[in-house]
Amino acid sequence: MKQRQATLIGFSAILLWGTLALFTRLTDGLIPPFQLMAMSFAIAFLLMLSRFIFQGHLGLRHLKHPKRVWLLGISGYFGYHFCFFSAMQLAPAVEVSLLAYLWPLLIVLLAGLLPGESLTLKHICGALLALLGCWLLISKPESGFESRYINGYLLAISCAFIWSGYSVLSRLISQVSTDTVAWFCAGTSLLALICHLALETTVWPEKTTQWAGIIGLGIGPVGIAFFTWDYGIKRGNLQLLGVLAYAAPLISTLLLVAAGLADTSWTLAVASLTIVAGSLIAGIGKKPTKRTLST
Q1: Which DSSP letter does residue 82 get?
Q2: Residue 292's pLDDT is what?
Q3: How large is the angle between the packed helices 3-17 and 225-235, nearest 10 degrees?
Q4: Residue pLDDT, tens place only, 21-30
Q5: Alpha helices in 56-180 (DSSP H)
Q6: Measured between alpha carbons, how far is 267 from 248 in angstroms, rounded to an integer?
Q7: pTM exceeds 0.85 for this model
Q8: CA 67 to chain centre
Q9: Is residue 21 a contact partner of residue 220, using CB atoms and an 8 Å limit?
Q10: Backbone φ, ψ for residue 167 (5° rounding)
């Protein structure tokens, strides 16, 4: 499959991540984070397991990989979410989100170190412009960094390095089938369940909308999104995907506005234009490779 098509598949993950806030809002915020994480990743695994069964197997063939593959996958999936939820408990949500969303910029910068890749000025300018738009979208006038929240800030920055590191290093194991992501989801769900049992009190959903939110998370932003992201980062334009990732909070906000759960503003308009402009700058003049990549 050509690089441009693989990039489009990767971008579909960003579109799905844009639904994260909407589905999370449907849960009413009552489900403990590690419980929600365990449930949604379990649904993602069951989704892929059903595909394996339809193909006539249980996916066990995708368990046979070197330890480094498992370390990369589990640390990427579980490590990011563990640090993010922990940071949310130690620092204000706005500042945590701002720091965690450094990961797309880091992808752009780190991808330039990969064999056959290069870092250009347009990549840097596009990523910085999109980052500015993201910060305009997320930040609030009363938000500000304070030294008493330093532990939370460090965990949020760890999120950025963990996910960008996972995304870039996955390029080096492109021969590993995307189907293996199913088992990454299973491992992440199990570890999240252990954290939930140790740290949280179980709260079962009581409303249909809450179940709809959980299932929606498991199928979309936690399920299909991770599979298409894996395909995109292994075979697509990784640096462009890094810049395009800043569209996720924009899509999220627009969906909340459409659902009547958020208000429009001039900040939203400016942030939208800034993110789009950054993406266009990063994508201008990029010629897709003529080589056909194996699936």
Answers
A1: H
A2: 36
A3: 150
A4: 889 888 888 8
A5: 67-74, 80-90, 93-100, 103-111, 121-138, 150-169
A6: 16
A7: yes
A8: 23
A9: no
A10: -65, -40
Quick one: CA dihedral 56, 60, 63, 64, positive or negative?
Answer: negative
pLDDT tens column, 198-237: 999 999 999 999 999 999 999 999 999 999 999 999 999 9
- CB count within 10 Å of CB 284 equals 9
C-alpha span between 239 and 109 (Å, rounded): 8
Nearest to 106 by CA among 92, 121, 123, 122: 123
What DSSP letter does each residue of 112-126 carry, written as one string? TTSTT----HHHHHH
The continuous run of DSSP H or E covering 8 comes out as helix 3-17
- 166: its two tokens: 């996972």
The mean pLDDT value for 59-78 works out to 93
Token digits of residue 147 = 């030294």
Which residue type is seen at 132? L
pLDDT digits (tens, 9 = 90+) for 270-293: 888 888 888 888 776 554 444 333
Give the pLDDT of residue 143: 60
Domain boundaries, the chain: 3-283
Structure tokens at 294: 């194996």
Among 2, 16, 7, 3, smallest CA distance to 247 is for 16
Distance between CA atoms of 10 and 233, rounded to whole angstroms? Answer: 7
From the list 69, 73, 26, 265, the residue with the least C-alpha distance to 188 is 73
Helix axes 80-90, 150-169, angle to 10 degrees: 160
Place of tokens 């001039």: 266
Residue whose tokens read 């709809």: 212
104-to-78, 89, 213, 250 alpha-carbon distances in Å:
18, 23, 26, 14
Query: Is there a contact between 222 and 43 (Cβ–Cβ < 8 Å)?
Result: yes
